[in-house]
Amino acid sequence: GRSLADEPTANSRPQRLLLIGQGPDGSHKPTTHEYFAGVNLVGRLLRGQPKLELVAVSADGDWRDGPQLLERADAAVLFVSEGAKWLSADAARLTAFRDLAKRGGGLVVLHWGTGTKTAEPIAAFVQLFGACHGGPDRKFKDFGQVLPQWTNTEHPILRGLKPFAASVREEFYFALKQASKTGGVTLADSESAITPLLRIPAEDVSGTVAWCWERPDQGRSFGFTGLHFHENWKHESYRRLIAQATLWTLKRDIPATGLDVSVRDQDLTLPESK
Q: Is CATH 3.40.50 correct for 15-135+211-268?
């Protein structure tokens, strides 16, 4: 038999990043909620990172091999339809995400991946990802023009990010249910355990639309509620935010001037609909 000394150490083996997408969900028109194209682009941005294995998977259907894939992952990016509901829809799936978190794994979630129409899945999701766009009282708006603002700008995730020079068109989710300092769920920024990174103007509710969280289990989570429109990947600030946040959840260093997140036009082009 092999001794433990023969096993590859965590430092010698590549880290494995699971990119979890889905096909069209039937309730959003093409060019919006482009889950699989989105996670593939995250993979494109992180290609060439040393000792990082990228595994893009489709979580359509019952995703029976999901728990096994998560077992072998160091971090996961989740961009799926009604993700908070999806997470709790299968006990083995929820357990696998919890196990990934317990071993200090990274968790990244984008747009409707943060969502659930009903309130029941909120708490389990918040414990993992830090915030949730959930419940019948959830708030969202298609802003024809909105100027988001960075906050906590000294955070390593925001290295090389400049203030937005112009408004963006985006459907943001806000007034999120957030992890509270006492371990529950809160709507109040003052009681929240997460670190806001990007905010939109919002009256009487939280305007946080991107956040990170150093979880009590020593792992790291990040979420962003933008990316309704696939074309918003054209914004360098979006690409940099997502790529750098993903590396941060893997506990990697981010260059002082930020990552190179340049892409070609064809990287942003969606495949032709059949």
A: yes
